[in-house]
Amino acid sequence: GQNIDQPTEMTATEGAIVQINCTYQTSGFNGLFWYQQHAGEAPTFLSYNVLDGLEEKGRFSSFLSRSKGYSYLLLKELQMKDSASYLCAVRDSNYQLIWGAGTKLIIKP
Amino acid sequence: ETGVTQTPRHLVMGMTNKKSLKCEQHLGHNAMYWYKQSAKKPLELMFVYSLEERVENNSVPSRFSPECPNSSHLFLHLHTLQPEDSALYLCASSQFTSGRAYNEQFFGPGTRLTVL
Questions:
Q1: DSSP B16
Q2: Residues of chain B with pLDDT > 70: what percent?
Q3: What is the structure's pLDDT at B100?
């Protein structure tokens, strides 16, 4: 079966750095997405990785290792507004998105 | 403003009611999706409409019935639902390009459905 694993919840301190991991086992791979979802709101697109390596976008970076079936989302200089759920999703060989259950990130002052 | 709107935002219905959820996208996309989001569970893809072709998850019960009259509008018709169908129902759209490349999806704010 297809599976995406992420930690259920993480806590970090304002101004710090946090890394949210995602491991996947899917039938084929055609890219990995990270989305942010604030409570009661729509998920919004953060990043996309299809090749190995690090993609940096401001305070957020996303890393992919296809051979290890692994990705992480790195958030720097954490702000209170970064408190949200972070969803990892992999596009499989049929170009369908397989979603993880999301990681709830709690930022403390 | 994500460009994808959904109505209603909240819906409470009895098990014998019939209701419909509506989604509209203003992004010029050619693919639209219905997802079910339950607490602490992965997003569950229910239906996809792309280039007027429907793809569905075979595990979705027949009490959920989608309708896509054009590329901008998507409905989810609900009838004789069960309490376990209570969840957040999200609509999304994306652009499908040649070579079966679906680009990133843009989500609506969702409809919070409670079935009594």
A1: T
A2: 93
A3: 53
